[in-house]
Amino acid sequence: MTEARESAGPHAGRVPGTPCWVSLMVHALDATEEFYGELFGWEFRPGPQQLGPYVRALLDGREVAGMGHLPPDRRLPVAWTPYLATDDVDQTADTVRLCGGTVAVGPLDAAEAGRMAIASDPSGAVFGLWQGTAHLGTAITGVPGTPVWNELLTFETESVAKFYTSVFGYTEEPVVSADFDYLTLHLDGRPVAGLHGLGHGLPRDRGPHWQTYFEAADVDATLRQVIELGGRVLRPAHDSPHGRVATVADPEGAEFSVVQNPS
């Protein structure tokens, strides 16, 4: 994780290639709403139903994330998935295919909200594409309970970075280190996401995947609450240059990280 404090606001989030939304597909939607409602103070209202029952999570009346019921015939992981903004989802989906990725769902219309697709990079990491119309993406950032950063955990960054830069026009800023394979993707000079190469340290049961970081007012208190609500702590809280951070899983196993502003 790097430069998490410089995540884009809701208007900047519409720049093509910027993570603009996060969504979670689960088996037990009601129970998942209860977990995140208690943890982050989210409230929920119905959203587009193209992929089955779907709700949008709201914080102070503004949309922050989406959750849906995982259709039995969709072989998708129970995982938080970032959506990357695009001005033309059909064209971007074609580019994904040309660059070695796969488009698993769509492109399809999500009612009046916009047009979307679900894709994966050549290593298999799943991400979404979002062309917003009525719904432009996350409407509030910088407060507890909102997504603040997205990071791809993969085998190595060099080859997969070529895919993302080819599709979305990112520039790369690598961390210069002999034993730390990390680079940040930039748009218009600002960091928007990270790629972390873990080599053999990548969990075999997961494979390459995107991970979402949510802001927390108190990471240690959040971890206690995660356990009380039936979740698990995967990586205990520790201090980093970007704040106190930890990785957890919800009751269905969806992993995410929480980070506390160091100020």
TrEMBL record:
Domain of life: Bacteria
Domain VOC, residue spans: 18-132, 146-261
One Pfam family from the record: Glyoxalase_6
Membrane-spanning segments: none
Protein name from the UniProt record: VOC domain-containing protein
Organism: Streptomyces echinatus
